[in-house]
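[Discussion] Sanity-checking designs against the backbone

I'm trying to build intuition for which residues belong where. Below is a structure token string of 328 positions. I'd appreciate it if someone posts a full sequence so I can compare it with mine line by line.
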């Protein structure tokens, strides 16, 4: 036991135990040193001992729901990851300092934002020079090479644009112009954009949205969200497949559904597909091109509207993405 208490005293994590009657009966030094608990905590009710209200509400939730709770508590520049384990005779609280991790994440995002910003102008210049050269070039072989270079610079341009959109959405800097939008019309516009690619694969695009269905959204962002989902629906489909867009009301949300009859996503990959740069397997993704930012943009657009996204999929059969947007 003394090894355990020595360890708990030295360790760079916070531990506390709250008994069944809601009193703090154990806390290690970390909890006091970091100012998480007041000095005279011993035997007092938990809601009188914690300095930050977020801890109190997390503990209250754990007591009420009797289930393990994981949450983040942020205070000024400091961030804590909080883990609460309910047991028969009380609750164990574990706190990890994630301030460094947060700083690292922030500087990574700033770095990406700055690099993307700096690349935008040179790429636009390279693109327009290549376009002029292609127009003037008579030699077929050289023209071919220039066209290849142009396609790669277009890929670079869309990568940089995607990164800039994500950066803006994440920072909350991008203001949404929400209005009542006719979803059927937006879906038709998106289908027009994707039509050529769909025809190449003989994939049918089906708009099942009711012509009077309205969503409360930023029209431009909503279009971008649907473009990414329908683009994936076609890109990861089989020849002669289908992509169907549908919408309905569920509780306080307008739900937009994009389903396809494509190759599907293996179960183990599903939790990660909305992460930046995540691509299911490089061999199948390489054939179709892309950077793995599309679904991350979809997620951020939904979140910035106060909504959420869900996916279900069966390998070999197809996928269904659902976007929930709060009603006005
Ligand atoms: N409808 C779908 N069916 C099967 N797999 C999908 C589907 N949508 C996404 N995926 C998988 O999830 C990965 C991430 O999708 P995401 O749209 O973020 O990136 P991407 O399509 O590879 O590139 P881009 O940035 O051009 O959209 C894809 O690489 C693909 O493997
Ligand atoms: Mg995509």
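Best answer:
Here's mine. Compare freely.
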């Amino acid at each position: 036991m003394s090894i355990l208490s020595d360890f708990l005293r030295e360790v760079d994590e916070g531990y506390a135990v709250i008994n069944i009657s809601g009193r703090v009966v154990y806390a290690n030094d970390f909890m006091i040193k970091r100012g998480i608990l007041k000095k005279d905590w011993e035997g007092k009710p938990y809601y009188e001992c914690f300095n930050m209200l977020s801890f109190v509400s997390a503990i209250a939730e754990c007591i009420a729901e009797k289930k393990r709770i994981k949450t983040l508590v942020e205070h000024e520049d400091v961030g804590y990851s909080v883990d609460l384990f309910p047991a028969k005779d009380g609750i164990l609280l574990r706190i990890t300092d994630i301030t460094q991790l947060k700083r690292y994440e922030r500087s990574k995002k700033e770095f990406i934002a700055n690099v993307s910003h700096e690349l935008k102008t040179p790429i636009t210049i390279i693109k327009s020079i290549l376009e002029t050269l292609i127009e003037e070039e008579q030699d077929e072989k050289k023209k071919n090479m220039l066209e290849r270079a142009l396609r790669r610079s277009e890929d670079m341009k869309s990568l940089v644009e995607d990164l800039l959109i994500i950066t803006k959405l994440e920072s909350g800097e991008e203001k949404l112009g929400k209005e009542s939008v006719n979803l059927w019309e937006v879906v038709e516009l998106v289908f027009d954009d994707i039509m050529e690619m769909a025809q190449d694969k003989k994939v049918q695009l089906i708009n099942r949205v009711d012509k009077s269905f309205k969503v409360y959204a930023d029209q431009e962002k909503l279009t971008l969200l649907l473009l990414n989902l329908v683009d994936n629906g076609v890109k990861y489909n089989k020849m002669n497949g289908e992509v169907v867009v549908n919408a309905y009301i569920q509780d306080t949300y307008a739900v937009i559904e994009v389903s396809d009859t494509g190759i599907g996503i293996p179960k183990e990959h599903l939790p990660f597909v909305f992460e930046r740069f995540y691509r299911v397997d490089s061999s199948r993704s390489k054939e179709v091109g892309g950077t793995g930012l599309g679904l991350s943009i979809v997620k951020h657009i939904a979140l910035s509207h106060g909504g959420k996204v869900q996916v279900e999929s069966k390998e070999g059969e197809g996928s269904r993405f659902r976007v929930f947007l709060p009603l006005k």
